[in-house]
Amino acid sequence: MWLFPIIYLCITAVQWIITMVLHDIITKIHIYDVLDGIHKKMNLKKSWRIVVALGSTAILSLGTAQVTKFYLLSGAYFWIVYLSFGLYLFVFLLPWLNLILPYRRNFHSKSMFLFNMSTGTLLLWIIVLSIAPNIIYLDEAGVTSIPANVSLKLITIGLLIIYYILSVILMILANHIYILDEERTVVSLYRTLTDIKILKVKNRDKNRLDYQKIAVVNSTIPIIFLLIVLSIENVIKYDSNIQFVDNILVIATIVTIIGGFISTLFLGNHNKWIKLTSLVVYTIVLCFNLMITFLYTHSGFTLLFEIIAEGLHYFSLYLIAIKQIGVLLLNILACIVPYILLYRKKKKSSIDLE
Questions:
Q1: Measured distance CA(209)–CA(23) in Å, rounded
Q2: How does DSSP assign 255-292, residue by residue?
Q3: Are strands 145-147 and 135-137 parallel, antiparallel or unpaired?
Q4: How far apart (Å, rounded) are the C-alpha atoms in residues 228 and 226?
Q5: 208 and 349, same domain (yes or no)
Q6: Which residue ranges does UniProt annotate as crossing the membrane (predicted)?
Q7: What SS3 class is residue 218?
Q8: Domain limits at 93?
Q9: Which residues contact 269 (CB under 8 A, 6 or more apart)?
Q10: Is the C-alpha dihedral spanning 335, 337, 341, 347 positive or negative?
Q11: How far is Cα 186 from Cα 90, in angstroms, rounded to an integer?
Q12: Distance (Å, rounded) from C-alpha 39 to C-alpha 348?
């Protein structure tokens, strides 16, 4: 049951990174105002609002039907609902939150979290439909099956991609509104201070935000590396005999992402008890995670040395060694970076006070 909340958090984290990166790109190339102008014009016209609502409902209905057919009603997938105590059903329901995204005016941290989760789940729909076999199993054992409607599946994927792109654009606009609201809050809180002090506060808040972004983005590097290697193994049709180890590594890299989010608490602007507690929790979780990672990856060094010493030229063996060594080193790096950022933050604060 605990696995699904972690999966939803990872989906949210990935979508948040996509939104932030695209927001920075669009802001730098100066097309934000164009997108915002189109969005405002569409909201002013009642006919457009009706078209958007009906179109969104139709696409989400088609997407839900297809994802449900492949991943809920096919084979033994329905048992996951019971094993997850119903949490699995959120995969099919979360994207429907995007129906209210075009009409939302005010955004805060909770709404941004929910919309990132719903938009990220929409991306998950596209991925799982793309890799789904064109077969619908009629029984739990997978004995009886019927061919899926491939044309309808491809049409659904195409419509979901279009809807996802539009949702990401709306998320970028929402993210911009959220950042502006945060900046207005900071300005109103420090309006009575002198210009020099206000400048220092803005710079310090900007550095904190940068530190938090760096910590979260850095924590996703191990799982991105692992997924790339696993994808290569899938492309070359390599059937790993250590599937259990791969699962452990996936969990370890997910825990690293959770650690990245925990680190935002002691890198952010919170009271000392929250900072201290989050730092202790982060240290305990990451130490345990590193021990587990080392336990299942240290053999990669031995394997690599043996391959080189014996002059073997098996790409699959090199891939196993690189996968284990890479995950170990990247996990260690991801765990160390928040401590370095915390040190730099304290050093920067002491200089500002002087």
A1: 15
A2: HHHHHHHHHHHHHSS--HHHHHHHHHHHHHHHHHHHHH
A3: antiparallel
A4: 5
A5: yes
A6: 6-26, 47-65, 77-101, 113-138, 150-174, 214-236, 248-267, 279-297, 317-342
A7: helix
A8: 1-189
A9: 205, 208
A10: positive
A11: 36
A12: 41
Q: What is the DSSP letter of 105?
A: -
Q: CB within 8 A of 20, min separation 6: which ones? A: 175, 213
Residues 2 and 70 in one domain: yes
133's tokens: 């076999």
Angle between helix axes 243-267 and 195-235 (nearest 10 degrees) is 180
Note whether 161 and 303 are same-domain residues: no
Closest CA to 253 of 332, 321, 340, 317: 332
**For residue 190, which phi and psi values (nearest 5 degrees)?**
-110, 20
| Domain termination residue (choose one: 189, 209, 240) | 189
| Residue at a domain's end among 189, 218, 246 | 189
Residues 214 and 290 in one domain: yes
Question: Do 127 and 221 fall within a single domain?
Answer: no
Q: Model's pTM, two decimal places?
A: 0.52
Per-residue pLDDT reduced to its tens digit, 169-218: 888 777 666 555 444 444 455 454 444 454 444 445 444 457 788 888 88
Let me know: does 345 contact 208? Beta carbons within 8 Å.
yes
Other C-beta atoms closer than 10 Å to the C-beta of 168 total 18
- Are 91 and 122 contacting, i.e. CB atoms less than 8 angstroms apart? no
Instruction: For 101-118, write each residue's pLDDT tens digit.
Output: 887 767 777 878 888 899
Written as six digits, the tokens of 89 are: 């059903």
The reply to whether 213 and 347 lie within a common domain is yes
